[in-house]
Amino acid sequence: MVTYSTDVVPEARRFDYWRQLIKSNLISVSVERETRNSFFGSLAACEVGSSRLLFVNSTTQHVTRTGSCINQDRKNLYLLNYLVEGRGSTSQHGNFSDIASGDFFLHDSSAFGDLRLVGDFKLLTLSLSRPLIDRHFARAPYLCAMPLSSGQHATVRVAADMFQSMAKHCTQMNSNNLELLVDNFVGIVAMAYGSSSVQCPTASTAHSALLMRIRGYIIAHLGDENLGPSRIAEQHGISERYLSTLFATEDTTVSRWIWAQRLEASRRALSLEEFSERKINEIAFTCGFNDMSHFSFSFKKRYGCTPRQFRAKTAKTEGQAERQ
């Protein structure tokens, strides 16, 4: 990980240096100092697949994602945060919450957001693409600034341990394995939100937890040839009509969503070194496909190349990275 510290500049310049560090390593934000005490800050950054992980260790400050900041970088991503140590408060999308050590919380870079941290703190932040968040979370904007405490559920504690371990060992893994790790990690956090007592502020989001649980169930059973609306509805004690309504709010259908996840699962498997000896049709079957011609056609339509071409291109890229 690349590490930066305010110790390298004179004390009078430390806060301005810190502001620039945050902006250049994550997104454009307004950072204000709320105490005249001596300021310190250290930041370790690491590329985690297509995401970026930051470990921040600093003291009291007020961070705001304003309209002018949004216009400066136009980044369309989510920040998944875990407060390792410290306390503060956060707000976004109409949610206002206190946060404490052991809390996860989401922020949407495309909207105004506010984060106030009081006293010394340690924070892990992972930038995530909107498609990745949308894959696992139902109506993610409504969950922004809604803390998920590691004291609420065992799944949250597993996610917290995984996040901290990922930060510790990320430099020892290749990018494709990290992509898979991040995807699984986000899925665990989404599962934790879905099984927690987090209360969304509007009645229209009451179904979000159920939809997240259903999505998690689908992803875990992609290889099941009987996976379909009737099986999913039965497993969750709801009608097929209600299941269809849940997915309609996301502008899709159950079947289309299953198909998209099977394609994505096959793409990830084809990019992993540990699956390099497995035949493409075996991978397709494991992901729930039983018609190879249809699989190849759909894969090329979605990703712009055949499964075989994708595997060859990924292997070449990995080989070049290792030689460097």
Summarize the structure.
The chain is of the alpha+beta class and 324 residues long.
Keywords for this structure?
324 residues, alpha+beta, Jelly Rolls, Arc Repressor Mutant, subunit A, ten-stranded antiparallel sheet, 12 helices, globular
Q: What report would you give on this structure?
A:
By secondary structure, this protein is α+β, with helices and mostly antiparallel strands. It has 2 domains: 2-173, Jelly Rolls (Sandwich); 208-323, Orthogonal Bundle (Arc Repressor Mutant, subunit A). It is 45% helix and 23% strand. The protein is built from 12 helices and 10 strands. Strands 1, 2, 3, 4, 5, 6, 7, 8, 9 and 10 form a 10-stranded antiparallel beta sheet that branches. α4 (154-169) packs antiparallel against α5 (175-194), α5 packs across α6 (208-220) and α9 (254-271) packs antiparallel against α10. The longest helix is centred in the middle third of the chain and has 20 residues, at 175-194. It starts with a strand and ends with a helix.
Write down the domain tally. 2
Second-tier CATH architecture of the largest domain: Sandwich
Largest sheet entry: 10 strands, antiparallel
Q: Return the structural class.
A: alpha+beta
The number of E-state strands comes to 10
CATH-defined superfamily of the largest domain? Jelly Rolls
Low-confidence stretches: none
Task: Summarize the SSE layout with pairings.
Blueprint: E1 2-5, H1 14-25, E2 30-32, E3 41-48, E4 51-58, E5 61-65, H2 67-73, E6 77-92, E7 95-100, E8 103-108, E9 113-129, H3 130-136, E10 148-149, H4 154-169, H5 175-194, H6 208-220, H7 229-235, H8 240-248, H9 254-271, H10 280-286, H11 292-303, H12 307-323
Antiparallel strand pairs: 1-3, 2-5, 3-4, 4-9, 5-9, 6-7, 6-8, 6-9, 8-10
Helix pairs in contact: 4-5, 5-6, 7-8, 9-10
